[in-house]
Design brief:
- The chain is mainly alpha-helical.
């Protein structure tokens, strides 16, 4: 039974790693050239600080997700993993929130500030950003589930384990 739980946890951690890594790769490859009237421009993730933050946060969480895959099941480092799971879940949440706010402005614009939507001119770029946000959001949900599972198994908050 313990081996099955370990295997399932490993599989879920692998899915979280895949989600954050794919969000990183998709966001890093998002760029497109477009034109509006006679102006030509290029839309890249690196032109927006929120998208850079999203990319860096997902890259950091991907590295952590890869390293924790090799943590031995009986190691005392799992107590540290609980704290790191919490920190990285919060990091992912803040990065997705920031990127989602900018993506919304890019899609809908802001008439009060005079910002025009750009997704009509660079639809491939917007699709890439949308894909990265979806993948990042899936990674966030998986990390939330992992956090709850890790708290339950490592810290035993209900004190169900007999000593």
């Amino acid at each position: 039974m313990a081996k099955t739980k370990r295997l399932l946890t490993l599989l879920v951690r692998l899915m979280a790693f895949a989600a954050t890594l794919s969000a990183t790769i998709v966001m890093a490859t998002s760029h497109e050239k477009g034109s509006f009237l006679t102006l030509s421009f290029e839309a890249k993730y690196s032109q927006t600080p929120a998208f850079k933050y999203f990319l860096i946060a997902n890259a950091i969480v991907s590295v952590y997700g890869f390293l924790v895959l090799f943590l031995p099941p009986e190691s005392m480092l799992w107590r540290l993993a609980v704290a790191l799971d919490l920190v990285f879940t919060m990091l992912l949440g803040s990065a997705i929130s920031a990127a989602l706010a900018i993506a919304y402005v890019g899609k809908k614009g802001n008439s009060y500030a005079g910002w025009l939507p750009i997704c009509g001119q660079v639809p491939k770029y917007c699709d890439h950003v949308k894909g990265a946000l979806i993948s990042g959001f899936i990674g966030l949900i998986i990390y939330m589930v992992l956090l709850l599972h890790t708290i339950h198994t490592v810290l035993d908050p209900l004190l169900l384990r007999k000593t």
